[in-house]
Amino acid sequence: MADHNHFRGINLVRFGANLNIMLDRKDYEGISVLDQYNLSIDMYHSITNIKKSRALTGNWNW
Known about the structure:
alpha+beta, two-stranded antiparallel sheet, single chain, 1 helix
């Protein structure tokens, strides 16, 4: 829970059509576990908002 740490953080990846296609990748290291969690949730929400807006506009091209 420390503000700064030397432990390995969270590595988030968003895959495309298969595991060989990485659309987004984020590494969160050297910050508190709570900050890593919050940044991960923010990334998830931004991805779901992009999908919703594309679904509403009918743009299915990634």
